[in-house]
Amino acid sequence: MSAKGKFPVWILFPLVAFLALAGLSYQMLGRDQDALPSALIDRPVPEFDLPSLREGAPNFATASLKGQGVRLVNIWASWCGPCRIEHPALMELAEMGVPIDSINYKDKRENARGFLAELGDPFAQVGADIKGRAGIEWGVYGVPETFVITDDGEIAYKHVGPIQNADLETRILPALRAAGWTPPEG
How crowded is residue 68: how many other Cβ atoms within 10 Å of its Cβ? Predict the structure, then answer.
């Protein structure tokens, strides 16, 4: 207590903050932490037109995703640790015949090219989103994020975070199949 007998209220602020966080944590128990809302599901992919990460290759744009069959669009960066963890799963998907395009997010071209040279390049097209504007249009929370795109250019599914462990079998492949993808024969 202070000299005048009043209780200093500011002492309660840490307790109130702790109780608020504890209440929020309790409220989140039992929820699917991967279920982040996306207003883009069942809607056309956003309008974008990005220069290719590859020298001399055409731009990667919205039109590139329409009428090309079911595919993935992966948003990644060389500076992203979880992107490195996810990369073997993308390589596996590409080996299975899943077409994968990508948007390299807020990255330096030389770093992104080095990442693909080191780990392998599973991507049919790679757009360079240097300023991050396309990522905003796609509703990206953070990299990596992966989208299942239908043949008519609509977003059928969004996976937030790295594809790992059982995600291929329990989330990605079922979403691809539901969108109409079938593995190539042979």
Answer: 15
| 42: its two tokens | 């069942």
Confidence band (pLDDT; 50, 70, 90) for 15?
confident
- Number of neighbouring beta carbons within 10 Å of residue 94: 17
| Residue 169 DSSP code | I
Q: What is the pLDDT of residue 23?
A: 65
Distances (CA, A) of 91 to 35, 65, 134, 144, 169: 25, 20, 24, 15, 15
Cα–Cα dist 62/79, whole Å: 25
Q: What gap in Å lies between CA 28 and CA 33, rounded to an integer?
A: 8
Domains of the chain: 49-178 (3.40.30.10)
Both structure tokens of 123: 């991507």
pLDDT tier, 10 (very low <50, low <70, confident <90, very high otherwise) = confident
Cis omega (within 30 of 0) for bond into 144: yes
Task: For residue 17, give both structure tokens.
Answer: 């903050």
CA-wise closest residue to 122 among 155, 139, 151, 146: 146
Q: With a cut of 70, say whether residue 27 has pLDDT above it.
A: no
Answer whether residue 3 shows pLDDT above 60.
no
